[in-house]
Amino acid sequence: MIRHSVRIFWALLGCSALALGVLGIVLPLLPTTPFILLAAYSFARSSKPVYDWLLRHRIFGPLIENWRRYGAISRRAKILGLASLIAVFAISLQLGAPPHAVLIQAVILPLCGLFVMSRPRPPGRHN
Q: What is the domain range of residue 7?
């Protein structure tokens, strides 16, 4: 019973992360890569067929494989990620977000950017 409940938890988390990752493809401020990585992690624990499908997917598969094999983020993903971080901060300033929210973003977003930039690029010509 508990094992079944844990699988359901991972499956629900995977579905949620996958949905957010797919939305991130069309919504510029929503990141795709972290949600797809979370979905893969979740489905690896709940549904081998869905996990295998993600690995074979023409868009998501390379993201997962680059992270899994090399801990790497492609140049394109880095650029899009950093642009999203900057856009989120700029929008917050433009909309007059509360000072505490801007302060939190001013601390957290650069740290996220540093992490993204610290990751190697995957080997190969499309990195």
A: 1-71
